[in-house]
Amino acid sequence: MRGVVFAGDRRAEVRDFPTPDPGPDEVRVQLKVASICGSDMHTYRKGREDLLAYRKVSGGSPDTISGHEATGVVDAVGSKVSRLKPGDRVTVFLHCGCGHCGACRGGDVTLCPERGAYGVVRDGSSADFILAPERDCMSIPDALDFKRAVIISCAGGTAYQSINRLKVSGADTVAIFGLGPVGLCAVIMAAARGASVIGVDVVPDRVELARKVGAFEGIDASRNDPVKTIQDLTGGKGMDAGADYSGNSNGQEAMVAAAAKGARLAIVGIGDSFSVDTMQIISKQLTLMGSWIFNRGQHDEIVDFVLKKDLPMESLITHRFSIEQAPEAYECFDSGKTGKIIFTWEGAGQ
Q1: What is the pLDDT of residue 286?
Q2: What is the CATH number of the domain that holds 163?
Q3: Angle at Cα 34 formed by Cα 177 and Cα 123, nearest 5°?
Q4: Which end of the chain has fewer CB atoms surrounding its CB within 10 Å, N or C?
């Protein structure tokens, strides 16, 4: 089978690997659609020595296959697998845990003390096949095509979790800072809850895409002051809820400054640290929280929300590549000017 390996210094290589056989409790999934995540780029951009050190510390290897956003069809199952069978449509949860602790039993693998990620500690989704424990494989209903399913598998699920934690409703004006794939998913999710959504980014193409998928206004922060613009759009009040998906300290600080009294705010994007004016937090009585990815147990809830609202998650896809074109795909995504980039295999339209 073919798999994509990071070689350091922004190099992705397509290599041949033996097709793996599933262990007793494992499932082998033949990929139909996989996608690139912004967090993949942290590893892609590392220098060779830093990459090798990171792989060693994290428990992976120099040849670990990249990626953690996988959808496909069960191809083979181990002897102890009881729930899934060949031909079943599944997505693979992006993090793996011990399977035994309270967090894992409750579906919140992100809190497992032994948590790891596909593409880091286990071979990931940028390959023809992926192996996963049965517990990490979540069924996809026939009504959900693989393209929408792969977006839900990470970006959409992460956005859903943060918008849900912010308790966004139709009474809110919500500002989304950072309009990469997760931020754009958040625009869709917040608008689907009835909120008035403002999108903020420094890339004009992403600002325009935010307008197309549900934002009533987009702010190009490279040309306009987002704090002043948000205040102008809200009659001087500021936004009721906000989330930063950029990981950029300028965006995070602007979000706090543009918040209305009593606003709820979430930090989602991983990147810079930022300075907080504690007097703003106190005097405006802000709620500031962190939000990461979603819980495995929320998958069916997210799928139901997307299907009931008929959310156009696939509209975020701007580029499609075959797995052989992985070097070009990662270089394209590294430009910071794309929406979601996917890899597709035969049968991806089903």
Answers
A1: 97
A2: 3.40.50.720
A3: 105
A4: C
Indicate the number of domains in the chain: 2
**199 beta partners:** 176, 218
DSSP for 254-283, please give it.
HHHHHEEEEEEEEE---S------HHHHHH
Give the whole-angstrom CA distance, residue 346 versus residue 14: 18
The pLDDT score that the predictor gives to residue 348 is 63
Q: Which residues of the chain have pLDDT under 70?
A: 348-350
Long-range contacts of 316-325 (CB under 8 A, 24+ apart): 316/151, 316/155, 316/181, 316/184, 316/185, 316/188, 316/209, 316/213, 316/340, 317/147, 317/151, 317/341, 317/342, 318/209, 320/344, 323/2, 323/4, 323/14, 323/126, 323/127, 323/128, 324/2, 324/14
CA-angle at 223, arms to 185 and 37, nearest 5°: 30
Asked whether residue 234 is assigned to any structural domain, the reply reads yes
| DSSP-assigned letter for residue 293 | S
Decide if 305 is inside a domain.
no
How is 178-193 classified by DSSP, letter by letter?
A: --SHHHHHHHHHHHHT
Q: Which amino acid is at 144?
A: L
